[in-house]
Amino acid sequence: MVARVCVVGSVNADLTFTVDALPQPGQTVLASALSTSPGGKGGNQAVAAARSGAQVQLVAALGTDAAAEHLRTHLQDNGVGLNGVTSVPGPSGSAAIIVDANAENCIVVAPGANAHLSLTSAAVRSVVADCDVVLIQLEIPVDTATVAARVGRDAGAVVIVNASPAARPAEMTALAGLADVVVVNETEADAWLTEGRSPVPHLVITRGPRGASHLAGGERSDVTAPAVEAVDTTGAGDVFAGVLAAAWSDGIDYALRRACAAGALATLVHGAGNCAPYSEAIDDILDARLEDRVDDDPTSPTRR
Asked: What is the CA radius of gyration of the chain?
């Protein structure tokens, strides 16, 4: 069964600088390369979910600038439905990304149209309601994210919140109370474990090249990621979240393994907007890992 995923989030035009080392405060460094590409956490996650095999609709806001049309085309070319995408006067969202020789990055985001995304339209709310999984992140107003979560929950959808960029705990209380799954990176996980936020049924902690952890009902399970030679980690977390949403209804362990594999593959590609792997590539790397485990098990009857 093909999952119906609605992503509610941001769409940006990315400007990426490649440098030897990330600049320190007050320092100027020269970039060895400069590129432009589509991005934004919402757009990236929608493309990742679609490429991994889900039926995807995006709820987002674009500006009235030249970038908006390029972003629309990119999303449509990747099979993302735009029934929930609206236009607001002014610039679209944009981001400046700096990537160093170790594939680490730092990002500055100008929200633009993303700051004006709302679900006041009945037509847009119906897009959110007509899905199996609602995936939300926080490059949009928290109030808008909360409305989307409530609409999704009322419709019986699984609500997944990628709580990034990190918000203040007080801002997240209502949204967390509506979430079935919260995805955070390990630097943000302590806040969810220790600051008394509303408990969520499933907490997923991404750990970069070390994979991910799943906490539910007092139990914890860890999933490793395939070992790769990363060239750019930008967008890998978005790919993880999009693929996790697309596969969630097929079982948590399966979804986590697919998401970890897809996130690893995403680091092999420069830029965020086009780094998501297709379903076949995810299948191939998972099959290869399974074969390696069988070959390493001396008790396996299928060991070659």
From this structure: 19
Please check the confidence at residue 195 and state whether its pLDDT lies above 80: no
CA distance 159 to 255: 15
Catalytic residue among 65, 238, 287, 296: 238
What is the pTM for the complete model shown?
0.90
DSSP 97-117: EEE-TTS-EEEEEE-GGGGG-
The dihedral region occupied by 245, where left means phi > 0, alpha psi between -120 and 50, and beta the remainder, is: alpha
pLDDT digits (tens, 9 = 90+) for 88-146: 999 999 989 898 998 888 989 899 999 999 999 999 999 999 999 999 999 999 999 99
Q: Does the annotation count 250 as an active-site position?
A: no
Which residue has 């989030």 as its token pair? 9
Sheet holding 4-8, edge to edge: 80-87, 55-62, 4-8, 133-137, 158-162, 181-185, 202-206, 212-216, 219-223
pLDDT for the residue numbered 224: 96
The residues, ordered by sequence, that sit 6+ positions from 172 with a Cβ below 8 Å of its Cβ are 142, 163, 197
Residue 44, token pair as written in the block: 């990236």
DSSP, residue by residue, 198-256: PP-SEEEEE-GGG-EEEEETTEEEEE-------S--TTHHHHHHHHHHHHGGG-HHHHH
